[in-house]
């Protein structure tokens, strides 16, 4: 198994300054490599410049400017160039697919928050021994930084990443050969239906409430953003301390919502894998579900458009993002693999419109958000429970008689 561990760093004042300089210099390297690619494509050759050519220049760059680039890990700088190369590969791949992606952009100092070390022992060293109560990670150019290791690290450490979030620093370990921790079998199976009114509903009829963390913090976030907009637009070096605090407050509120959403997803997924041996879920394409509706030109009045429900769809899209279905399903997949559970994705089409009793499919079966009434056999039930039952049936799970 592959698993990542994330721990809080506790650097000294000098180490925090060195970490900030490390991010700044890697950001400069990233932007310089991006500018070189742009210039090469425009003025030299339409084929552009590749990662191998830019990586070969690192030795000369480090020798020319040892203070900014020579003191950091060579392999971490190669990882930064690979990061740019992946951005270009993704860009051209989406162009070939007929999409309209944005061209890779320059990164500001505050928008470049991660430095990766591709191999433990090359520019970094995860120093964790069972006898030593204090855990440290050694980073080239920074030193031995204390780590708040709140749980043991299993498996073999492959890569080490340092990330900044606000005023906090984290170390992220990617490990392989992590042993599984199977849970005892329960003999129970279920299907789950994701929703907005309820976060999820099981085929047994259990509803998990939607916490709506984003909506609960909307008022506080709006106040913080209004306070931020009160400041005039200035260059970064000319901003006042009050302006910087206003920026940090908005960012902290967004981080709070993200942590709450992730915490709820972890707890819900853990409860599911503890209770069920097999879990079936809808294979949702969330990116397609949150697309804005296309405009409808009015044929009788050129230059005007007919109502297309964009306002209502925007509210639904906001609720879908707030629920965090994608985050939850990703966490559920990792926990199921570790616990030895089986996860079955199924086609989500018409799961809430199909009668579990007679199999009749019709949009009229779902009369309201919560009520399902079959127009063929008059079977009535909760619409979310019907969706969960159909998910379980499509996965081939044996359930009690639902008629």
Order of helices and strands: EHHHHHEEEEEEEEEHHHEHEEHHEEEH
Number of domains: 2
Compute the number of strand runs. 16
Q: What is the distance, rounded to the nearest whole angstrom, between the alpha carbons of the first and last residues?
A: 41 Å
Mean pLDDT: 91
Share of β-strand residues: 15-25%
Largest sheet: 7 strands, antiparallel
Query: What would you call the structural class?
Result: alpha+beta
* Oligomerization: single chain
Unreliable parts: none
> Rg from C-alpha positions?
26 Å
Total number of helical segments?
12
- Main sheet: which strands, in order across? 2-6-7-1-5-4-3
Helix content: 40-55%
CA-based shape: globular
List the main descriptive attributes of the protein structure presented here.
403 residues, alpha+beta, Nucleotidyltransferase, domain 5, 7-stranded antiparallel beta sheet, 5-stranded mixed beta sheet, 12 helices, 16 strands, 42% helix, globular
Structure description:
This protein is α+β, with helices and mostly antiparallel strands and 403 residues long. It has two domains: 3-176, no CATH class; 189-211 and 256-394, Nucleotidyltransferase, domain 5 (2-Layer Sandwich). 42% of the residues lie in helices and 20% in strands. It contains twelve helices and 16 strands. The strands form four sheets. The chain has a seven-stranded antiparallel beta sheet. The radius of gyration is 26 Å and the shape is globular.
């Amino acid at each position: 198994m592959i698993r990542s561990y994330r721990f809080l760093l506790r650097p000294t004042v000098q180490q925090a300054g060195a970490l900030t300089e490390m991010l700044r210099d890697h950001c400069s390297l990233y932007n310089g490599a991006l500018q070189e690619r742009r210039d090469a494509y425009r003025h030299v050759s339409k084929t552009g410049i590749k990662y191998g050519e830019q990586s070969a220049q690192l030795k000369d760059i480090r020798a020319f400017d040892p203070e900014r680039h020579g003191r950091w890990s060579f392999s971490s700088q190669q990882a930064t160039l690979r990061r740019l190369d992946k951005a270009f590969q993704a860009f051209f791949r989406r162009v070939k697919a007929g999409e309209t992606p944005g061209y890779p952009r320059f990164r500001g100092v505050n928008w470049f928050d991660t430095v990766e070390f591709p191999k433990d022992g090359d520019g970094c060293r995860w120093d964790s021994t069972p006898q030593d109560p204090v855990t440290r990670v050694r980073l080239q150019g920074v030193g031995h930084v204390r780590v708040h290791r709140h749980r043991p690290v299993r498996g073999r450490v492959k890569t080490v990443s340092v990330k900044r979030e606000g005023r906090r620093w984290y170390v992220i370990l990617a490990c392989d050969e992590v042993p599984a921790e199977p849970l005892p079998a329960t003999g129970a199976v279920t299907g789950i239906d994701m929703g907005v009114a309820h976060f999820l509903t099981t085929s047994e009829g259990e509803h998990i409430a939607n916490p709506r963390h984003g909506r609960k913090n909307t008022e506080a976030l709006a106040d913080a953003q209004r306070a931020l907009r009160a400041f005039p637009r200035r260059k970064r070096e000319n901003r006042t301390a009050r302006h910087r605090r206003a920026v940090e407050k908005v960012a902290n509120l967004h981080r709070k919502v993200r942590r709450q959403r992730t915490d709820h997803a972890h707890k819900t997924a853990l409860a599911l894998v503890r209770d069920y041996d097999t879990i079936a879920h809808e294979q949702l394409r969330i990116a397609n579900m949150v697309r804005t509706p296309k405009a409808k030109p009015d044929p009788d009045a050129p230059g005007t458009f007919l109502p297309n429900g964009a306002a209502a769809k925007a509210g639904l899209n906001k609720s879908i993002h707030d629920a965090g279905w994608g985050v939850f399903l990703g966490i559920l997949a990792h926990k199921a693999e570790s616990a030895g559970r089986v996860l079955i994705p199924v086609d989500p089409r018409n799961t809430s419109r199909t009668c579990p009793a007679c199999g009749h499919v019709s949009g009229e079966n779902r009369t309201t958000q919560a009520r399902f009434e079959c127009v063929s056999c008059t079977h009535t039930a909760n619409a979310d429970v019907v969706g969960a039952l159909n998910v379980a049936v499509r996965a081939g799970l044996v359930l009690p008689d639902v008629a």
